[in-house]
Amino acid sequence: TGAMTPNGSRKKQLFIILAAVAMTFTVGCVSDLLYIQGHVKKLPKQEQKITTVQSNNIVFLLDKSTSLTTSQDAESQKAILSIIDTMPDDACVGIVLFHHEIYESLPISPLTPAFRSQIKTVLSRPLSGATNFELPLREAWQMFDKNPPNNNYSNSIIMITDGTEPLSNADHVLATATRYGIPISTISVSNTYIRDDLKQVVTSTGGTFCTTSSYDELASQI
Question: Most buried of 61, 68, 131, 200 (most Cβ within 10 A)?
Fold first, then answer.
């Protein structure tokens, strides 16, 4: 175009061409920016990750009858303490040692350092007596009645035993367990058979029952 333009007009023509190129470049840049902006996905704000400790309020029922060996008793104590060590301080624990009667018990309390130490001392009581399952279950239910935990954790009862004795007043125990609705789990520490009447009580509450033959299995099941 410039070659065909007379000399007198070439300067003006060149200015128009440069102006047109500059304007086209500017419009192109703006258009590209608008296009890119329209296809950029805004990423959501990074949510803060909150780690919460999952726990339960647990009443441990520990069989202290003489049918257990000292090794089984020691493993049961160790397993309970290892689980308690993982629980937060505001979780609540109760302890019931039983044989044919209530041997000793600690009411449901938050896991303060002093209470953790007290639990360790109580669990070490020596073996004695025969086995009765109804009494420790009744003791656990009364604990939840008298001193219900004031937190948002769910409640549960865990019985550790080697006993195969039948439940006395089985129908009454089953009705009471159903009324409370607190999950009861029963763990046999010597692969002994868990009787059907106790299994029925356990399953009625949504709990589980199992047998174990080693400390690792016991701690894992708890």
Answer: 61
Report the C-alpha gap between 206 and 222 in whole angstroms. Answer: 15
Name the strand (E) or helix (H) holding 77: helix 70-86
pTM for the predicted model, two decimal places = 0.73
Return phi, psi of residue 176, to 5°.
-65, -45
Predicted confidence (pLDDT) at residue 13 exceeds the cutoff of 90: no
CA angle (33, 37, 40) in 5-degree steps:
140
Helix (H, G, I), strand (E, B) or coil at 103: strand
Give yes or no for a contact between 83 and 158, defined as CB atoms under 8 angstroms apart: no
The candidate with the shortest Cα–Cα distance to 148, out of 160, 140, 158, 159, is 140
CA 73, 74, 76, 77 torsion-angle sign: positive
Q: Is 169 left (phi over 0), alpha (psi -120 to 50) or beta?
A: left
Helix axes 196-204, 170-180, angle to 10 degrees: 20
- pLDDT: which is higher, 56 or 191: 56
CB 164 within 8 A of CB 193: yes
> Distances in Å between the alpha carbon of 26 and those of 19, 20, 37, 71, 180?
11, 10, 17, 86, 77
Amino acid 212 reads: T
pLDDT at 216 over 60: yes
138: which 2 tokens? 């009744």
Q: In whole angstroms, what is the distance from residue 57 CA to residue 90 CA?
A: 9
